[in-house]
Amino acid sequence: MNVFLKPQFFRDDILANLLLPRTGWRGRSYVVVFPTKYCPVACKHCYFASSMPGRNDEGGSLGAADIERVKQFVFDADTELLQITGGGEPLLQMQSVLELIGQGRARRMLLNTSGLFASSPARAADTIERIFSAFAANPYCGKFIFRLSVDEFHLETVKPAKLLNVVSHFRRNFQRYEAANFTLKLHTLAGDRAVEWLLQPLADEVLRLEPTEVVFHDGTACAIGHAPRMMSQARPDLFNLEETRHALDVFDEVRDPTPGAFIDDNLDLGLCFLIHEDGDVELWNTAPADNVANVRSHDFAAVRHSVLGDVIQLGALDHTAPYIEALVAEVDPLSLRRAKSIGSATFLNRRMFAEARLRLYVSLRVIQDYLADGSLGQAQLEQLQADTRAALRLPGEQLRRLYRESGFDIVEQQLNQPDPSPSELIDLYQRLKLGHFDVAPTAMVERVRGATTLREQVRRDFLAMLG
Ligand code: SF4
User: Fold this and answer.
1) Which domain of life is it from (predicted)?
2) pLDDT per position as a tens digit, 12-34
3) How many CB atoms lie within 10 A of CB 334?
4) What are the per-10-residue average pLDDT scores of the chain (467 residues)?
5) Does CATH place domain 29-189+191-227 in 3.40.50?
6) pTM of the entire predicted model
């Protein structure tokens, strides 16, 4: 049969029944935790679209029980570097952050903040001292970087006075903090002059300002880091060819080709995990949409087993992300364009692999390559469905023909979901209008009208919402 007619069924077959060795990648881990998705600053450019509406909704922040699991995950993962970050603003969840800092078994830690908390010198001092005390009480962690976002956007939204309160507090406590390996780093963007502007009121005190460091006459100093300036937008218009081209160029220039891999201080290869505010845990920018674990139900061993048992993620680890992207481009360059145009590497694969048909195609192609280079043998395919094994024997051109002939697209996928909601259908319709998938919006409306799988009320609500 044509496996692309039931793509998720055969992709699930591969996830469950392909016998992968799951060896390697045993170095220490890099774990990134997002305590909350909320942030009152609500920057227009925030690619996490963080804001405050619905703050009390379940799933928007890690709860106390989640933090216990995160700590266990950090311990089991033999974590070298723990990063506590956003968006949102991690310090909205102060108690969770203090617990992670005080009890997380990681050798190094990094906290990212907008500095919003520092509304007065006293507030800045109180918050930073509580964080310092938690770090100082942690016997496992030997180094802490307090990373303050200082870029043109944040100068406008958070305001310079708050950021200066943070800088001044660190300078006042410079020797005590330095002795404990607790340091401030200003985090800015390539080509951004915000650090220079921020420090203007202190101009008489600055001895030298360099791209990577500011040193003051009194001997205090702090490092400056630069992140690439990406063009983030949650819903790019892919019909705007000039903007799309520019976004793709920037993405390709600055992106990390090995996002899920981490080289630890022993130069061993480990893995880099993201733990989101809803508990989802995945390999950094590598997990496709259908294979994301959750700390509430998966411990570190289960997550590792799942990551190294997924040929899409394993292929990216073994051969880098561009290898996977080249396979995507064989059948669906639009998915690649859509994912990259969003301008954030976070969730790249989730966005790129929105379609089950594409996930199956790339899985099959990666297995074919592993068979060809001897990394996999026929014995490891024995538990797969006969149709999956038959597809693996097909040459690439024939596989691509079956892919095209299946006609299974994103609309088909959405209509086959158990009880899709009208807002999910509207969301897809709007994405079609932006050129995110190769289906005309009018064709989707016709298919919704004729879909036998859809509840009548859902169809009516969808059509009503269209106006
Ligand atoms: S301060 Fe940071 S997390 Fe908050 S909205 Fe702005 S960019 Fe997003």
Assistant:
1) Bacteria
2) 999 999 999 888 999 999 999 99
3) 17
4) 96 96 92 93 69 67 96 98 92 97 98 96 98 98 97 88 97 98 94 94 96 96 87 82 86 83 94 95 89 94 95 95 95 93 78 95 98 96 98 97 95 92 95 95 95 92 91
5) yes
6) 0.91
Give which of 33, 102, 99 is closest to 61, Cα–Cα. 33
| Ligand 1 mutation pick, 61, 89, 155, 189, max ligand atoms within 8 A of CB | 89
Q: Is the minimum distance from the CB of 408 to ligand 1 under 6 angstroms? A: no
377 CA → ligand 1 middle, Å: 48
Atom of ligand 1 nearest to the CA of 87: 3
d(CA 114, CA 279): 23
Nearest of 447, 427, 444, 371 to residue 19 by alpha carbon: 371
pLDDT of residue 154: 87
Which pLDDT does position 210 carry in this prediction?
A: 95
Q: What is the pLDDT of residues 260-283, one digit of tens each?
A: 999 999 999 999 999 999 999 999
Strands 29-33 and 79-84 turn out to be: parallel
Give the span between the Cα atoms of 149 and 50, in whole angstroms: 15
215 CB near ligand 1 (under 6 Å)? no
Where do you find CATH 3.40.50 in the chain? 29-189+191-227
Separation in Å, CA 320 to CA 70, 314, 315, 327, 355:
27, 9, 7, 12, 21
